[in-house]
Amino acid sequence: ASIGNFFRRSLRRAGRREGKDGASAAENTPLQVPQGKLGERSSVFYSAGQFFFEYLVVVSLKKMPDGQYEPKITYQFPKRENLLKGQKEEEERLLQAIPLFCFPDGNKWAPITEFTSETFSFVLTNVDGSRKIGYCRRLLPSGRGVRLPEVFCIISCLGCFGLFSKILDEVEKRRQISMAVIYPFMQGLRESPFPAPGKTVTIKSFIPESGTELIELTRPVDAHLEHVEFQALLQRLSPHLILHIFASAMLERRLIFLAEELSVLSQCIHAVAALLYPFTWAHTYIPVVPECLLDTVCCPTPFMVGIQMRHLERVLEQPMEEALIVDLCEGKIIRAVGDEEEILPGKLQNEMLVSLNRHNNNNNVHTSEQVNTLVSETFVHFFVRLVGHYASHIKWGRSGSGNFQERAFCKAITSKSCRRFVKKFVKTNMFSLFIEEAEKSRIPQEGNG
């Protein structure tokens, strides 16, 4: 109950804060303002050289007196010593929250003999707005007879799903040998600097009977796509529905995604948030909502959440305001506002549809990196066409501070349908935050002194 109250308080705080500091559990990355033209990818989300991770924890299911199971942390690396009071309180909150998100599907478990490992992630937002990502691998420990699954969770401030999935592959491989083999690998990782985009770091690791292994971890070249798997979205939803979801997200509506697998929810919601680049979802963002927090859907402020399909009836019974509810299992929309088809300017929407259908049907595209790049370009191009002229409507004062001229910016758009949409879009939090950053980040022009 206490941890549930903590999260509800943080959601309410987020809702009150939304006007200024981006509020709530928004994921992905800090807000980026492309240099020069909208859509240029010159910025790096996270500075290279910081720690890969803060903690590795193992969350196991412990039997309670009532016969049900409750998730508890049974292993933590590293153990922190000599923390200041504030740091200790933050750590305790974090360690209290982690089990809830590692087993969001409640406590109705029973020992089993077979289980397919699954990978998913969650996001925790501190009171100060900083974010931590939990990368999880749920697996069945090696052995015979019935056993309970456990979750290995890596807590990091760094958003790079593919890279952490590879680290979890190594953790799982070692888990099948012995817990003792995991520690030196994670220690080696902790001592290695996080690589810059496109660069590789090599970790030396010794495994009994196999000898010393060299594990190469490469970061994608395009930093803003490293937490994304657009293929997961395209496999489950038609391009037409993806555009309806994108349009709703752009107007900062309430979005609920349903699937049974935690990995599907996690991948698809990260992908939807990434479609908004270079803008950032600035509201409540929970890729997998724990069962005890299902009343999040009653929240009056915008949210983007993932809920397991088994809870559909409970969700529909909640007294929620207008929301878009998406079934990722069947690839359909269960509940809509009704105007999704008309939100985006018609001509641009059709161009995006053609582009997405081309990528969807193109059998020559094999790698997820290629799909990511092509899909991202479709949406970045949309933003360039629509609001790419923003920089020329920032008036710069002598002190160096900028002032965005909203009326002139909207007036400069010749297409009526585009102007009508942009007038709504400029009122969103994500656009306001983007412009706030742009007003601070003037680049001195050559020859201007």
TrEMBL record:
Keywords: Guanine-nucleotide releasing factor. Residues 54-445 form the UDENN domain. The keyword Coiled coil does not apply. GO terms for molecular function: guanyl-nucleotide exchange factor activity. It comes from the Eukaryota. GO terms for cellular component: cytosol; nucleoplasm. InterPro entries: cDENN_dom, dDENN_dom, DENN_C, DENN_domain_containing_2, Tripartite_DENN, uDENN_dom. It holds the Pfam family dDENN. Residues 14-33 are annotated as: Disordered. PANTHER family: DENN DOMAIN-CONTAINING PROTEIN 2, DENN DOMAIN-CONTAINING PROTEIN 2D. This is DEN2D protein. It comes from Melanocharis versteri. The gene is Dennd2d.
